[in-house]
């Protein structure tokens, strides 16, 4: 199975450099002090497109918008092509981290 990527600062530039336009699961993260916290877990059939959508002014999730406006955020991802595996990993990640923006 594939492995999670490194953490990258969540910027337009880093999305185009590091994110593939392929299927996978991702974590949105912020840093407070020396600790990192997951605030959202999602999946997509096009990771690059989806993470760009979160940065757009049309992002419907107000919680994600708040974190992106108030913190220096990062992202991690894992490429997974099969839908049932993406569903399983997304569910496991949400259960593990209980991200506030997935409520």
From TrEMBL:
Cleavable signal peptide: none
CDD domains xrefs: GIY-YIG_SF
Gene3D superfamilies hit by this protein: GIY-YIG endonuclease (3.40.1440.10)
A Pfam family per the record: GIY-YIG
InterPro entries: GIY-YIG_endonuc, GIY-YIG_endonuc_sf
Domain GIY-YIG, residue spans: 21-103
Protein name in the entry: GIY-YIG domain-containing protein
Originating species: marine sediment metagenome
């Amino acid at each position: 199975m594939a492995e999670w990527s490194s953490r990258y600062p969540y910027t337009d530039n880093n999305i185009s450099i590091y994110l593939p336009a392929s299927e996978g699961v991702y974590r949105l993260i912020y840093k407070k002090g020396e600790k990192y916290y997951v605030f959202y877990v999602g999946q997509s059939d096009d990771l690059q497109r989806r993470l760009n959508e979160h940065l757009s002014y049309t992002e419907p999730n107000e919680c994600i918008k708040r974190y992106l406006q108030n913190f220096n955020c990062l992202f991690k991802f894992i490429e997974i092509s099969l839908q049932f595996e993406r569903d399983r990993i997304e569910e496991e990640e949400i259960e593990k981290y209980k991200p506030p923006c997935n409520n």
